[in-house]
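Please fill in the sequence for the structure shown.

STRUCTURE ENCODING:
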């Protein structure tokens, strides 16, 4: 995708982190009236890229991306980035933090005092359903990953089963990570985070759990190589 390639060229010489970028999904607008723009920023120990729909093709970090015509949650697609911490353990600890204000938190703390039951998600995978009066949090584990879907049933169960089915054939980065879906009225806000050494990588999609999953499994070091991990 040209906007991602442009963003990674911008980032490459501005950070000491070994950057990663998604090779999937390839987003397609609903009509030829839309293009994809990117905002990128980077420092020695972090970088971040945000993707959004635009009314016309725009260069990287164009001021027009912040204008009312192009900005706003309706035009938000998703993004990816990374942060480097002082130690490997500090990066792992950050995985399990719920940060207020996150558009799509990658970890959701299971609610205290909720009733719990086991739920079969397909392909031999069994999760835990933390039930509350107005919603459920479904949690399961794949390798070193913790995966969660929060929302009302049966929608939450359906999304969890869709992810289990996808990950049965498509592998997440082979390290410790978290992925969480928050089902809301304007989309399934989804984020994934994982650690390599002292660096925490992330990707997220504002609308679709499956598109975020595709992005996570497709992350590669930039310049793109066949390596899935260091």
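FILLED IN BY: designer on duty
SEQUENCE:
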């Amino acid at each position: 995708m040209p906007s991602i390639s442009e963003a990674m060229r911008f980032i490459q010489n501005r950070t000491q982190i070994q950057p990663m970028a998604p090779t999937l999904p390839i987003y397609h607008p609903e009509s030829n009236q839309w293009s994809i723009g990117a905002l990128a920023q980077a420092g020695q120990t972090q970088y971040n890229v945000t993707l959004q729909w635009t009314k016309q093709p725009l260069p990287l970090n164009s001021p027009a991306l912040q204008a009312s015509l192009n900005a706003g949650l309706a035009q938000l697609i998703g993004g990816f980035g990374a942060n480097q911490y002082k130690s490997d353990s500090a990066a792992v600890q950050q995985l399990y933090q719920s940060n207020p204000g996150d558009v799509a938190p990658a970890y959701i703390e299971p609610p205290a005092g909720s009733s719990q039951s086991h739920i079969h998600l397909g392909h031999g995978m069994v999760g835990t359903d933390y039930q509350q009066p107005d919603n459920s949090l479904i949690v399961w584990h794949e390798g070193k990953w913790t995966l969660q879907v929060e929302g009302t049933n049966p929608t939450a169960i359906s999304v969890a089963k869709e992810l289990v089915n996808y990950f049965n054939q498509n592998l997440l980065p082979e390290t410790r990570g978290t992925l969480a879906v928050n089902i809301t009225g304007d989309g399934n806000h989804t984020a994934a985070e994982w650690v390599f050494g002292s660096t925490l990588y992330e990707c997220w999609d504002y609308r679709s759990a499956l598109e975020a999953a595709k992005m996570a499994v497709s992350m590669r070091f930039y310049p793109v190589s066949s390596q899935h991990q260091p």
